[in-house]
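Translate structure to sequence.
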């Protein structure tokens, strides 16, 4: 699930001030008071646990994608993902999630965003049709650690323009992940994503983007999908981020919120793609946590 930017610029170096990492082995993390001013640095054990949560997420996405076909409703995709979560002994961080921007708790374990819906579509009785562009976003919490990932695909017969849009979003994600190395900054990830989206003349919805991830689905820092290189929080080993490009085919940046208060839609009616991985910064390079 995408995070809304709300604390732009409030990036505090891990280990500074009142923040504390997990390196001491106490596994402790003070959520009281000033957590929003901190980023958590995870140790190897925590990242291994996040990898297992991420595996469940990847299996959920695969199950939802496998279930998707013309004539199948979005609720059925949600059921397929929920089965995977239950069988894994995991829980859903999406179900009943109630961030400040939403009027009601989220009622499902996946977001299912079709065609002009960018992100946060609530799976409902909509029946998929040949050629629909579907973005599925899913999270899972296992043993106290969370993974978050998303994929976009076409149901049935693809249109070349849709394949290009999805392919470009995937390229932007790969570039964002490649930039997630120790010593780089959040702005390097943002710039890598945004440059690819803009070169292809797609729109980018500002205000929603990636985020830190760990025990909670949405942790600091915010990871914008566009930005200046060399700016923002410096990346260090043990930082885990959900990186999630969203691109709008029409080229404009305007989007609106659906009447349900959750789904974001393109204003021009053009299609949108959304892809995401949870990634850890490590000394040996980016470690993707949400692969099968
Ligand atoms: Mg997500
Ligand atoms: Mg996310």
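Result:
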């Amino acid at each position: 699930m995408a995070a809304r930017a709300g604390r732009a610029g409030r990036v505090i170096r891990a280990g500074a001030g009142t923040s504390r990492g997990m390196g001491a082995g106490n596994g402790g993390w003070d959520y009281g008071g000033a957590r929003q001013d901190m980023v958590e640095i995870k140790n190897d054990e925590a990242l291994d646990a996040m990898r297992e949560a991420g595996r469940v997420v990847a299996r959920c996405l695969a199950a939802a994608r496998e279930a998707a076909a013309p004539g199948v409703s979005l609720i059925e995709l949600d059921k397929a993902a929920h089965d995977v979560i239950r069988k894994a002994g995991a829980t859903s961080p999406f179900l009943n999630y109630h961030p400040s921007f939403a009027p009601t708790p989220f009622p499902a374990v996946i977001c299912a965003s079709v065609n002009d819906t960018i992100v946060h579509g609530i799976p409902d009785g909509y029946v998929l049709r040949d050629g629909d562009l579907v973005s599925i976003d899913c999270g899972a919490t296992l043993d106290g650690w969370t993974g978050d990932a998303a994929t976009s695909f076409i149901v049935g017969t693809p249109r070349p323009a849709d394949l290009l849009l999805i392919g470009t979003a995937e390229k932007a994600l790969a570039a964002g992940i490649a930039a997630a190395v120790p010593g780089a900054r959040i702005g390097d990830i943002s710039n890598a994503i945004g440059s690819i989206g803009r070169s292809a003349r797609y729109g980018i919805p500002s205000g929603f983007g990636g985020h830190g991830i760990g025990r909670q689905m949405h942790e600091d820092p915010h990871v914008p999908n566009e930005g200046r290189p060399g700016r923002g929080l410096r990346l260090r080993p043990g930082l885990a981020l959900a990186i999630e490009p969203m691109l709008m085919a029409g080229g404009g940046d305007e989007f609106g919120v659906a009447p349900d208060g959750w789904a974001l839609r393109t204003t021009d009616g053009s299609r949108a793609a959304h892809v995401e991985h949870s990634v850890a910064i490590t000394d040996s390079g980016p470690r993707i946590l949400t692969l099968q």
